[in-house]
Amino acid sequence: MTEFSSSSEQYRTPISLTVDGERHEITVDNRTTLLDALRDRLAVTSVEKGCGHGQCGSCTVLEDGRRVTTCLSLAVAHDGAEVTTARGLAEGGLHPVQSAFVEYDALQCGYCTPGQVCSAVGMLDELSRGTPSVVTEELTEAPEPTDEELRERLSGNLCRCGAYRGILDAVRSVATANRDKDTSRENLR
Asked: What are the pLDDT digits (tens) for 142-152?
């Protein structure tokens, strides 16, 4: 007969996370989501707990530059990762996406805003790398930041207040500025 230990220590794992530039060593239950590790264990409040089911995107952060829905990810799977929250984007001033959200009034209650901002930053990076989406028409060229393209890429984030027009305007303005900047650099070569 196999004997099982009643100790919960066998279900705990030490992990290391760098959050907004600060390294943390914690031990988590193997079932702990990255969201709960960030909020409950590390007191990171710029990551919001919305639905807990991956439907709203309010818990979105950037991990090594890629968008991650933290409520769907186990913390142990992110051992050694570098996590950037909306707060971590604002080093020495607001990130261009954050500034655009303010300029275009892309928030109302603000609950979804950290996730929206992180998602937009990750999405803009995908665009700059030429990563296509399901609505990208021309796969041999870098995707254009059309409204359809931006809506598709931001579709993992919900805003219950309905600030979508402002969000789209803000993200479009940054995407256009990035594209113009890239075009200017190419013309200088």
From this structure: 788 899 999 99
Residues 95, 90, 114, 64, Cα dihedral to 10°: 90
- Residue 88: per-residue pLDDT: 96
Q: Which pTM was predicted?
A: 0.88
pLDDT in tens, 62-100: 998 899 999 999 999 999 999 999 999 988 899 999 999
Residue 14: φ, ψ to 5°: -75, 135
Superfamily of domain 96-188: [2Fe-2S]-binding domain (1.10.150.120)
Q: What is the DSSP string of 18-65?
A: EETTEEEEEEEETT-BHHHIIIIIT--TTS--S-SSSSS-TTEEEETT
Q: What are the sequence ranges of the domains in the chain?
A: 8-89, 96-188
Q: Specify the CATH superfamily of domain 8-89.
A: Beta-grasp domain (3.10.20.30)
Distance CA 78, CA 17 (A): 7
